[in-house]
Amino acid sequence: MRFVLPKGRLLQGSLEVLRRAGIELRPPAERRLIERVGNYEVLLARAFDVPVYVEYGIDVGISGSDVVEERGSDVLIPLELPFGKCRLSLAMPAGKVVGPEEMDGYRIATKYPKITRRFFESLNVEVDVLKLHGSIELAPKIGIADAIVDIVETGNTLRANGLVEVEKIMDVSALLLVNRIAQKTKFEEINELVFAIKEVIRNGF
Ligand code: PRP
């Protein structure tokens, strides 16, 4: 079986939940991106690419629901995992706060252009979406955007940059992803994995 795991904040939780489910994976050493461990192969990818790898042929992946939603990937999601909990929110500089329905003509910086457009379209508000790849909080701070849509976990990054949360757009959690074809061709193995992870969760992961 081939697994694709995200670099970054979900990696430790991903390895731990799989380890407790009886699958001991070693992340690739140093700058290698693939590691073979017994019958398993582990790929490390950028968080935003994990659902894409699963859609196009890697058997199993772990990814945030924010990324799956943004990518709109055609994958199976047998389980929500009990880590990586945070939210995707609209935020803006304290002192300039208005509601999203009053943001006509605003420029919104985000790593999530599709979710952001959909959110404002649902309110019938026209905004200009500025796609950035990270450190989103910088954009309103230096005046190249009016607001941001980004992940909030503790809220520390917002506070440190003088931003306040205006509205939650979605709750986010890590998800187990399964390739549609693998679900058929590796039915037994995948069902065993899903069952084992369910047990881990039931026992209080
Ligand atoms: C994420 C997110 C926020 C921060 C939120 O960034 O984009 O910047 O974490 O967490 P907090 O509410 O606990 O402060 P990440 O570290 O993933 O890096 P990024 O700047 O590349 O998005």
TrEMBL record:
EC number: 2.4.2.17
The protein, known as: ATP phosphoribosyltransferase
Domain called ATP phosphoribosyltransferase catalytic: residue spans: 46-198
Organism: Thermococcus aciditolerans
HAMAP family xref list: HisG_Short (MF_01018)
Enzyme kind, highest EC tier: transferase
Function text: Catalyzes the condensation of ATP and 5-phosphoribose 1-diphosphate to form N'-(5'-phosphoribosyl)-ATP (PR-ATP). Has a crucial role in the pathway because the rate of histidine biosynthesis seems to be controlled primarily by regulation of HisG enzymatic activity.
GO MF, one annotated term: ATP binding
Reactions catalysed according to its record: 1-(5-phospho-beta-D-ribosyl)-ATP + diphosphate = 5-phospho-alpha-D-ribose 1-diphosphate + ATP
Top-level taxon of origin: Archaea
Family: Belongs to the ATP phosphoribosyltransferase family. Short subfamily.
Subcellular location(s) of the protein: Cytoplasm
Gene3D superfamilies, per the entry: Periplasmic binding protein-like II (3.40.190.10)
